[in-house]
Amino acid sequence: MIVRNYKDGTPLDVANLNKITVIFDRGESEHTEIGHNEWRPHLDGPPHFHDEKEQVFYVTSGVGVVKLGNEQREVKPGCLVYIPAGLQHQTITTSEEPLCYLLCNIYESNEDKTFAQHIESVRSVRKAQAENQDSGGGSAIAQIKNPPKFFEDINQGKVYEFGSNQTILLIDRSESERIELVVVVWPARNKGAMVAHSEKEQTFFVLEGHGEVTIDGETRPIAPGDVVFVPRNTPHTTESFDEDLRYLCLNTLIGERKYSSFDEMFNAIAPARRERWESGSKEVGE
Questions:
Q1: Taking the alpha carbons of 274, 266, 238, 234 in that order, is the dihedral positive or negative?
Q2: Phi-psi region of 82 (alpha: psi -120 to 50; beta: other; left: phi over 0)
Q3: Which residues contact 118 (CB under 8 A, 6 or more apart)?
Q4: Strand, coil or helix: 257
Q5: What CATH topology corresponds to 2-151?
Q6: d(CA 62, CA 76)
Q7: Which residue has the higher pLDDT, 136 or 195?
Q8: Which of 20, 191, 202, 216 is deepest in the core (most CB within 10 A)?
Q9: Does residue 286 sit in helix, strand or coil?
Q10: What is the pLDDT of residue 132?
């Protein structure tokens, strides 16, 4: 069971530009890799792109600018960025403080190359890209299917009521290759129905409140800053304590999709989930 705080771990240095603390490697999942990225102050980072993965940044501290293709956005704590595969992007820090964000890498392939192996292979490349302010090449992706997204406030979005909790949709599965991103809010002193998902693995990043998660029969407390990983086909539920519990939920979609959108999925599964919650059933469902 993976429940780890984003501040824990040993940082990996990337050419004295940034440090990445590995929260969990892709070898611990099917297609997901999570880290915490810290860029040093007053830095124009390396312009670069990734053909093999989509990314999500959630800013935890500091200020700066993120360039997304031909546009750029000022970022501060609480901002969120989605970067499709193949899009050139760049992180720029603009103050005396580091710019830090939760880094979510969602890979197209399921090879188990580690974060450390990847950093070792790109360290000299990133240094040259930063020094020259040039990516040094172009993406092999001829046409990027999905545009980037920027959220200054992740609490703004369409709200879905599951009875036990609210879900705020940020990125629909129809707007990316493998990503579906939501904010989940559990009212105080509430426990959800037991669920398992065949088409996605999940990552929770706790933003506010305290509670506990039960995954495959094991229960652990969770608090702000904790990162929780839920494998596919694994029964799990969440319980909030004396205050609302809020977390960012990254759904990494895998295999054949039963539903083409979050809306379609909600309409199909919400009634039965709400019924299980209201009755206190221990049955596992979607």
A1: positive
A2: beta
A3: none
A4: coil
A5: Jelly Rolls (2.60.120)
A6: 6
A7: 195
A8: 202
A9: coil
A10: 93
Non-local (6+) Cβ contacts of 268 within 8 A are 258, 259, 286
Q: Are 203 and 250 in contact (CB under 8 A)?
A: yes
Phi, psi of 278 (to 5 degrees): -65, -35
Average pLDDT over residues 148-174: 96
CA atoms of 161 and 90, how far apart (whole Å): 37
Identify the bridge partners of residue 200 per DSSP, sorted by sequence position: 253
Residue 219 is encoded by which pair of tokens?
């229960």
Collapse the DSSP code of 284 into the 3-class scheme (helix H, G, I; strand E, B; otherwise coil) and give the result: coil
Distant-in-sequence, close-in-space partners of 279: CB < 8 Å, separation ≥ 6: none
Please tell me if the domain spanning 2-151 has the same topology as the one spanning 158-279.
Answer: yes
Place of tokens 């092999």: 140
- pLDDT score of 180: 98
Which CA distances in Å does 21 have to 18, 144, 228?
A: 10, 29, 16
SS3 assignment for 19-85: EEEEEECHHHCCCEEEEEEEECCCCECCCECCCCEEEEEEEEECCEEEEECCEEEEECCCCEEEECC
What's the CATH fold of domain 158-279?
Jelly Rolls (2.60.120)
End-to-end alpha-carbon separation of the chain, Å? 20
Q: What is the mean pLDDT of the chain?
A: 95
Model pTM score: 0.95
Q: Which of 202, 46, 21, 6 is closest to 127 using CA atoms?
A: 46
Model confidence at 76: pLDDT above 90? yes
- The DSSP code for 271 is H
The single-letter code of the amino acid at 3 is V
Q: Where are the domains of the chain?
A: 2-151, 158-279
CB 184 within 8 A of CB 247: yes
